[in-house]
Amino acid sequence: MLLTSSAQRSNNDDTEIHKVRCGLCGTSPIKRDRYKCLNCEGLDMCGRCFARRKESGHHKSGHAFAHFKSPGELFDRAVNDNEVTFSNLKTLYANEIHESINCNGCNRGLIKGLRFKCYSCSNYNLCQQCVDSGVTTQSHKLSHSLIVVMRRTVLQIPVEDIQISNQCGRGAF
Questions:
Q1: Which of 12, 55, 87, 118 has the greatest number of CB atoms lying within 10 Å of its CB?
Q2: Which GO terms describe its cellular component (predicted)?
Q3: Does residue 50 sit in the same domain as residue 106?
Q4: d(CA 120, CA 51)
């Protein structure tokens, strides 16, 4: 595995092509960010439709989504598309502890299991129980889309997977 800078990766769209069609605008394939609705079977959205909060006959705003930044990878794990369902994620991450993250719905001091970030409310997190019961607050409404997130935000690369290639620079400082 060769490490590349984010600037190099962002210029190469070939690595970010998801082999699925946007269920709302029809864009195919979806490039860059892909959102899979966990409430609607088989509904994928491109980043543009997600950002615009587009709806269809059966899909409404306020659903939970898995956010794929890279094809076949979710939360730094290789996944098959058919594995990414609400029930599978609930089971797989049932014991995940999100320390120092309070649930804004029930005010618990930590979130165990899936964690949901509101796409509309700044710094707003919900636990699985609050999502299941449809908790709302003064700022958070049921029509706000939720994104499932994990506590890890930095990709952990095993040392044995790192290869030193070309010299990156001469150490300007």
A1: 118
A2: plasma membrane
A3: no
A4: 10
